[in-house]
Design goal:
The protein is mostly helical. It has two domains: 396 residues, MFS general substrate transporter like domains (Growth Hormone, Chain: A), CATH 1.20.1250; 57 residues, no CATH class. Helix content is 74%, strand content 1%. It has 18 helices and two strands. Strands 1-2 form a two-stranded antiparallel sheet. The protein is globular. The N terminus and C terminus are likely disordered.
């Protein structure tokens, strides 16, 4: 199928790193021909309201990964499921979300971002209603899986809407600063909101609250988003979709299974090896497919690839922080769920401030190379500082300072990485590029949480070996487990500092000439 002509000055990086063969782009049209027929699409007059709609949808998706955590004890008591099964309330969402994100991103490119965005909202709301009214454990797990499926449609569509709405560099910096802050702090907001709803209403409201988010975002989406779909749509890469979806499912399931079983369990390694083989097969297939699900030109760009890696590593470290610091505050310092959520808010405020400042002032002048690696290093220092927390620590003197340092570092990572990962990408690749950002963060978070949980559990068991399990010994073993998790999180960020420092190009971001807008049908 023939493709539309593009301007001759199209981003060289997208074309140079594309795979050969059937996926090679056709020759660009002559400059004169393009200039006489094409003009960049004017910015939406309602673009800042669009940012509000997209941010609301993204917040709903991200906070749902943690909001149910605080509600689990109440849900378990109400529905009567055992400790061995409760992990599936969290895992069902992560499995469906992480494994289907790339597929959902490509659907947004092929069908149209507005349609997929609104469909994801409606489906997510209905699944939340089913989960909130669930009469049994099985129905609740099924509803959480449905939430993950529709989130896999919604999240990449939301980010690709933002990518194609904000084309002016300065405005784009502000928009992605806000979006990056939401992506990075949604988990903490979920902890606070989950505590409030569980303590003052009922655990079911941790799911019902999504209806409010979804209705507001749906009304705004219907009124503000541009409709239409590409006229010239490539075919869907079905083999690629199957390979990557099943492969990511196996990877996420394998690491989730490791949380409940020994690393020597055959079930764990069978899924991990199968997932690695399938993901590798997906990468091989993308270089040969006529219409690849993830065109090689997208991840093989150095800056974009470095941004994907940054999201993966920071997701692994950040989700571990939320998990283990939550346990520390509630079990060691005896904080209530609400007080625990409030404890994260200063970190959220610093992260939001730094995200907006970085993308608006620093990224346009310096580029991502000094910013993201430095942010990784600062986040690692914050994690190392947390290893000093003990049973006598106070929030103002001991917990708050490393939290602020962590928020400062993450604010230098998330927004610039998301901005760089989606900058200059072809319009028809915006959805899949956005999906890859979400996929890396989600899969990184799942893997990081499983690894850190296993290491922390082992550290606690090792501490109690040869000791009487007194109350004081058990409390100290918990501190040992948290400290181990923090050190490993610091190691993740140190690795991220080295990798992103080596991969990002030096200098200011390259200026991308807007492409010819694709014709759309109403």
């Amino acid at each position: 199928m023939a493709r539309h002509s593009r301007p001759a000055r199209r981003d060289a990086r997208d074309g140079a790193s594309a795979g050969g063969g059937a996926d090679a782009a056709p020759p660009p049209a002559a400059p004169d021909a393009v200039s006489s027929t094409a003009a960049p699409e004017p910015p939406s007059p309602h673009r800042w309201l669009v940012l509000g709609v997209v941010g609301l949808a993204q917040l709903m998706v991200v906070l749902d990964a943690t909001i149910v955590n605080i509600a689990l004890p109440s849900a378990q008591k109400d529905l009567g499921f055992n400790d061995g099964n409760r992990q599936w309330i969290v895992t069902a969402y992560a499995l469906a979300f992480g494994s289907l994100l790339l597929f959902g991103g490509r659907i947004a490119d092929l069908v149209g971002r507005k349609v997929v965005f609104l469909t994801g909202l409606v489906g997510f709301a209905l699944a939340s209603a089913v989960g909130g009214g669930a009469p049994s454990f099985e129905v609740l797990v099924a509803a959480r899986a449905l939430q993950g499926m529709f989130a896999a449609l919604l999240a990449p569509a939301a980010l690709s809407v933002l990518t194609t709405t904000f084309t002016v560099p300065r405005e784009r910096g502000k928009a992605f600063g806000i979006y990056g802050a939401i992506a990075g702090t949604g988990g903490a907001v979920g902890l606070l909101l989950g505590g409030l709803l569980t303590e003052y209403l009922d655990w079911r409201w941790c799911l019902y609250v999504n209806l409010l988010f979804a209705v507001l975002a749906f009304v705004g989406g219907v009124r503000l988003l541009r409709s239409g779909r590409p006229v010239d749509r490539p075919k869907l890469d079905v083999p690629g979709a199957v390979l990557v979806s099943v492969g990511l499912f196996c990877v996420v399931y394998g690491f989730s299974n490791a949380e409940q079983h020994s690393w020597s369990s055959p079930d764990t390694w069978i899924f991990l090896i199968a997932g690695a083989v399938l993901v590798a097969a997906f990468g091989w297939w993308q270089t040969r497919a006529a219409h690849p699900l993830l065109p090689p030109r997208v991840p093989l760009d150095r800056d974009r690839g470095a941004s994907f890696i940054a999201m993966f590593i920071s997701g692994a470290g950040m989700f571990g922080v939320f998990l283990f610091l939550t346990y520390y505050l509630q079990q060691s310092l005896l904080y209530s769920p609400i007080r625990t959520g409030l404890a994260f808010l200063p970190m959220v405020a610093v992260m939001v401030t730094m995200s907006v400042t970085t993308t608006n002032f620093m990224l346009p002048r310096l580029g991502p190379k000094p910013i993201v690696p430095v942010g990784m290093g600062i986040a690692g220092l914050g994690m190392a500082w947390m290893t000093r927390l003990d049973l006598n620590s106070t929030y103002p003197g001991h917990v708050l300072p490393p939290l602020l340092v962590l928020g400062f570092g993450l604010g230098l990572v998330f927004a610039p990485a998301i901005n760089t990962a989606t900058a200059g990408v072809a319009t028809h690749d915006a959805g899949v590029a956005s999906a890859t950002v979400n996929t890396m963060q989600q899969v990184g978070g799942s893997i990081g949480t499983a690894l850190l949980n296993t290491l922390a559990t082992t550290a606690a068991a090792n501490y109690l070996t040869g000791r009487r399990p007194t109350r004081a010994a058990v409390a100290q073993s918990q501190l040992e487990s948290y400290s181990t998790a923090y050190w490993w999180s610091a190691a993740f960020f140190a690795l991220g500092m080295l990798v992103t420092g080596a991969l990002f190009r030096a200098g200011r971001p390259r200026t991308h000439v807007p492409e010819e807008p694709e014709p759309v049908r109403a």
